Amino acid sequence: MDSHIETPPDDEHESAYSGLLVNDAHWAFGTDFEDPLAGVDTTIPDGVDAATLGTYALMLGDDSLVMSHRVSEWTSNAPDLEDDIALSNIALDLLGQARLLLARAAKADESLVPVLPEGSPAPPEDALAFFREAHQLRNVRLAELVNGDFAEATVRVLLFSVWRLAVWERLHSSRDHVLAAVAAKGVKELAYHRDYAARWFVTLAQGTDESRRRLLAALEELWPLWPELFDTHPVEAAAAEAGVGVDPATVREAAEGVLDQVLAAADVASPASPRRSGVLGRTGRDGMHGEPLSRMLAEMQSVARAHPRGLW
Amino acid sequence: MILKSRTTERARRVAERVTDPELPMLTLADLGVLRDVDVVADDHVVVDITPTYSGCPAMAAMRDDLVRELRAAGFGTVDVRVSLHPAWTTDWITPRGRAALAAAGISPPGPAPSHDGPIPLTLLPTARQVRCPRCDSPATDLVSEFGSTACKAQYRCASCLEPFDHVKEI
């Protein structure tokens, strides 16, 4: 009669503790999937400068990492359970992309990876995520802003995904096998993110006076950072020239075409606000960031930095 | 060679039995995640798996489970490699896998969309012919494109009123 409470011997997932008893020590702040690129062809394509490829992958990886972290801050804070789950899923997809891209950056150019205290088991992608200062991150500034309300999250995910999808739809023909594969997978994920945000954009714009007011305020606030997404950094130009990357300026028209469809469906005009300038011409891709990124990193990195040899 | 292929066959059978940690009614073979199993020397086996979603946390568990099961079957060295290309698609879920999902109350995916050129924007809820896995009613509503795991959407049946998961097409 009691046989149903016994753990079936062939079901390896019954006990949450069984995994802790094998495989002893793991790096405390990442997963134990040792190398996300194990078995992947990471040869640098002929004629491609390793530093260019590495820094280009780092830029894309930092966009994912920082955006993922901001979106993940919505977990348990979204207006309802469905959107909490949706935003958490979006953050998770972006984190997975970040992991592959940062691992790619490290494989292409080891000199990018911070040197950790001897005995640290942190894999290179985690060293890049947890042990760099704000000025070493190359993400676009749109990703790093402090979160606002749900309308702000909607507009930010929309702008980010429309732009990124347009870039990645071209990146999947990269001569670099890793970037091509990451992009081919990523476009499917980004299309879900974009459409989710686009539907909420229209819903909020066509909802109540209050939801429309908040949506327009968010668009007004984020619009100045939209043009920066299409700036061509010299590294992006070199990566595009070498056939491994995409010059974001070349996707501007495609991205604006998609965004215009959303604005038209929502009956919202593009704001006229001018672009936010850089500091002496330097923007996110140059490592020039606002103070909120430093605070975000302080929170994200503090435990790993306090325990660089952390095992559990 | 006959001996080697027999060993490979044995390794393959062991690897194919390993189940997905989030969808334990599915084996990795049924899910289409297991791409290749090869015995390269004596007791050294190399397994290729492909991630479902970039951030799917189940990948680490799959790898550990493969290593454990193959070691238990006598393979001393087990390498699990990641195969990123071609990207995983729900079209690789086998008919048996689809039947197992449905039997467990999870609606299996329809055909994955294919695109020539840019993926068009869809502002309306994704149109799918989803039947309730419990009562088979075609009257179902999409609640959210994002569900309990990265690979699922949430639905609700308008007939029996039960909520259920649908594996979304990618």
Automatic annotation (TrEMBL), chain A:
TM spans (from-to): none
Keywords from the named record: Oxidoreductase
Region of interest (Disordered), residue spans: 272-291
Statement: the UniProt record of this protein carries the keyword Oxidoreductase: yes
GO CC terms: cytosol
Superkingdom of origin organism: Bacteria
EC top class named in words: oxidoreductase
Enzyme Commission number(s): 1.14.13.149
Molecular function terms from GO: phenylacetyl-CoA 1,2-epoxidase activity
GO annotation terms (biological process): phenylacetate catabolic process
UniProt xrefs under Pfam families: PaaA_PaaC
Gene3D superfamilies: 1.20.1260.10
SUPFAM superfamilies reported for this sequence: Ferritin-like
UniProt-recorded name of the protein: Ring-1,2-phenylacetyl-CoA epoxidase subunit PaaC
Organism field: Nocardioides cavernae
Automatic annotation (TrEMBL), chain B:
Domain MIP18 family-like: 16-83
Top-level taxon of origin: Bacteria
PaaD zinc beta ribbon domain residues: 124-168
Membrane-crossing residue ranges in chain numbering: none
InterPro entries noted in UniProt: Fe-S_Maturation_MIP18 (IPR052339), FSCA_dom_sf (IPR034904), MIP18-like (IPR002744), PaaD-like (IPR011883), Zn_ribbon_PaaD (IPR056572)
Pfam families reported in the protein's UniProt record: FeS_assembly_P, Zn_ribbon_PaaD
The protein's name: Ring-1,2-phenylacetyl-CoA epoxidase subunit PaaD
